[in-house]
Amino acid sequence: MQENEHITPIIQRNKEELATGYPKWFRFLETIGLIIFFILVGIIAFRIIKVTADLWYFIIPSLILAWIFSDFIGGLVHWAGDTWGSVDMPILGPALIRPFREHHVDPYAITRHDFIETNAACALGGVPILLSCLLLKIEKDFPLSSFIAFFVFFLTLFVLFTNQIHKWAHSKKRNKFLILLQNVRVILNPEHHQIHHTPPFNKYYCITTGWLNYFLNSIGFFPKLEKLIMKYTKALPRRDDIGIEAAKKELK
């Protein structure tokens, strides 16, 4: 019996159908979200600048912490989009799940997306977070509230550009500065990210810096989370991404 007879074939969606499935209504919603996002960023940035002279020592710690957490948040969203749901779901399917399915069928499709299609969904998700940030006091007499505001502000900005960084990791045309940042691992390195694109696409989800991938993989963070969700929902992870049989095999 030949060895390849034991291999369960991965079955994926048609890439042409996925590429043309970007809803016009969702693009409109993304565009509005992107505009609101940057308006809120401007308001909060102004409030932060006003107290920078008094709270300057918050900037570096909040930046570093936000950069690390943006890798985790991006990875968590990436894992959720890759693992659960179906393109056939109403509203969420074509709007939010479709891009994840398309990316595994055609990894270079993201390099053909414009700024809105690449980043606006992240901006849309960031709007309620920035709105909550407006409720925080940013004053020298409220150091804890101010630090949280600094952290949330930077985190939301970094998460906005997570998919842009992801796009650069797939781009064939990169300037020397981008290559330098990728080589020193300040942003996602293409060779590192290629591990995620090895079927069945079930590891190394973090796509801002990739710093947390090894740690999360070593403790089995996402597989444990999947088992917990399966226990209570009976849902099969990655069934829509790689096919039911391949998904079942990965659980054995």
UniProtKB/TrEMBL annotation:
Record GO cellular component, one term: membrane
Main location: membrane
Keywords: Membrane, Transmembrane, Transmembrane helix
The UniProt record lists the keyword Phosphoprotein: no
Localization: Membrane
Keyword Membrane: yes
Gene Ontology molecular-function annotations: oxidoreductase activity
Lipid desaturase domain: residues covered: 67-240
UniProt membrane topology term: Multi-pass membrane protein
InterPro entries found in the cross-reference section: Lipid_desat, Plasmalogen_desaturase
Transmembrane segments: 25-48, 55-80, 144-165
Family: Belongs to the fatty acid desaturase CarF family.
PANTHER family per record: PLASMANYLETHANOLAMINE DESATURASE 1, TRANSMEMBRANE PROTEIN 189
Name assigned to this protein: Carotenoid synthesis regulator CarF
